[in-house]
From TrEMBL:
It comes from Methylomicrobium album BG8. It holds the Pfam family Semialdhyde_dh. The lineage of its organism: Bacteria, Pseudomonadati, Pseudomonadota, Gammaproteobacteria, Methylococcales. Gene3D superfamilies: Dihydrodipicolinate Reductase, domain 2, NAD(P)-binding Rossmann-like Domain. SUPFAM superfamilies: Glyceraldehyde-3-phosphate dehydrogenase-like, C-terminal domain (SSF55347), NAD(P)-binding Rossmann-fold domains (SSF51735). This is N-acetyl-gamma-glutamyl-phosphate reductase. It is found in: Cytoplasm.
Amino acid sequence: MIRAGIVGGTGYTGVELLRILALHPEVEVAVVTSRADAGVRVDAVYPSLRGHIDAVFTAPEVDTLAACDVVFFATPNGTAMLMAEQLLARGVKVIDLSADFRLQDAKEWSQWYGMEHACPDLIAEAVYGLPEINRERIKSARLIACPGCYPTSVQLGFLPLLEKGLIDCDHLIADVKSGVSGAGRKAELAALMSECGESFKAYSVSGHRHLPEIRQGLALATGKPVGLTFVPHLTPMIRGIHATLYARLESNTEDLQALYEQKYKDEIFVDVLPNGAHADTRSVRGSNRCQIAIHRPQGGQTVVILSVIDNLVKGASGQAVQNMNLMFGLAEDVGLSAVALYP
Ligand SMILES: NC(=O)C1=CN([C@@H]2O[C@H](COP(=O)(O)OP(=O)(O)OC[C@H]3O[C@@H](n4cnc5c(N)ncnc54)[C@H](OP(=O)(O)O)[C@@H]3O)[C@@H](O)[C@H]2O)C=CC1
Ligand SMILES: CC(=O)N[C@@H](CCC(=O)OP(=O)(O)O)C(=O)O
């Protein structure tokens, strides 16, 4: 059995990890941390886990976590980087759901995240945990930087077009909507039902911290810098990300539906919908799937890609477990076969 630790077990991605790992046949959840709830049983905070997780929240301490084979950090940015080095030195694999190791340039990271990086030397070793592009490197990694939720939906949507060089890379547009759980469980005015219910708004239009992460991934796919306008929106739903992606085609020869189907034909967690379909977040809620639909309105030069995920599953905890499966030589979908909840 793989002994797993979760730092930040009371947050939304933490409890989603617990939900997934509770039914994972190869994992025993050995340590779950929370500073605020240290000493409290996990199933007292989350009764849904009664009979599934027999653990008590503890304070996050390296000595306790070092008894694990793998530690997930489901913590705010700036936390994993303080403990990762010590855990790796003690032979523990680290899977970080936060942004601490996502950007390859420590200076750029500091600018977007507003703090100095505590261990810039580890950044080069971290493998960006998007299995659809980095599967082989993930298998032998010690440290995984799980992609952000918006970046997962946008990169999976744009990749086939970029890899084939079919679009104008200077003017990409990602118009993306997120459910409120994307903001985490902490109390926040903007996430109150009376603030975001019955309303819909864009935010961080002048620059969101996922912009450099998405640009970095797309530039790697195409081999040159990309020009991207990324506008996130907050929608009054709990889970889900819906990305509407726009690009200008530079070639008319390719059958785009066939291109996407071919690119993702062996990917368990990327589902290309039939021609003309409209992807919806409800159809991936609770599942580790990304569903993608391709459109070319009026047969013109603009291609519109719809890409949907559950931000807490393929956008965070499901993808983290997908990475863990690869790192430990398991089948990629162990523990991740849940079908979306409907309605
Ligand atoms: N929500 C989402 O959809 C997604 C989130 N992410 C990323 O995953 C990470 C977790 O997000 P989310 O679950 O939403 O966050 P939450 O705010 O819901 O939970 C944060 C958790 O971290 C713990 N924590 C907070 N500060 C510290 C600290 N300094 N040291 C140790 N533990 C700490 C909290 O418990 P306590 O304070 O009691 O210790 C809590 O359990 C973030 O980096 C987020 O950006 C990534 C993709 C999607
Ligand atoms: C709706 C909402 O607030 N979403 C969050 C992003 C999601 C997140 O947790 O960020 P990471 O993926 O980088 O970890 C935000 O815009 O700050």
